[in-house]
Design a protein that fits this description.
single chain, 238 residues, Rossmann fold, 2 domains, five-stranded parallel beta sheet, 11 helices, globular
Length: 238
Amino acid sequence: MNALHQRMQELAARRGIDLAALAAADTGESPLGTGWTVDDPAAARREMAEAVLAAEMRGTFANAQPDHPEVARWVSELIEQGPDAGDRLPWLTLMGATGRGKTHQAYGAIRALSMAAARRPGSYRPYRWRIVTHPELSAALRPKSDKSHEYALEIYEVADLLLLDDIGAGSLTDYGREGILHLVNHRYVRRLPTIFTTNLNEDGLRDAFGDRVPSRMNEGVIVVVDGPDRREAIGEWR
């Protein structure tokens, strides 16, 4: 059991929540009557969401907020209208040079959307968000003797919200490129909210992946994040 799972179990037990019953109630229906009760379900959802965020977002991302105006607008519209409203794809692509705060904005967007889902009345299903960098995904997709690479995409395909960080910075082997294209297509046809960050411009993305990835990104919102290098400003190494 990892530290995050243990922390979630401790928080759940403190409120009398049976996590196994919660997982069984993944249909979005009220879990009341499945064997456990909660005095304040809304507070329990918020506390669980905060625990996950605290465990996963540390260091400079611990208090990340979507404070870029265009990112904040994308987050607000997704919260208010939902992913299926309107013709625009619920995707956000953050482009810009290294150190400009793209990942910071992406983490802030995840925080805001996760807490909004936890506050949404009537929903008991956990809001599943995932973060993976392109190099991490490339490593997971590398063929292995235990065949684990064949299932590497599954948790990212079904996530309610996915951040694919540093797309274009990972392996561009055949299996790496095919994996990215498959993941992008899977989330595209299902209109699943997705955030990308990249140091590449549109031409660079076309060179790396062909036309399919950048053309689909163009159906969502693209934000160029510029300004000074945030890492230099806080004294970090490049």
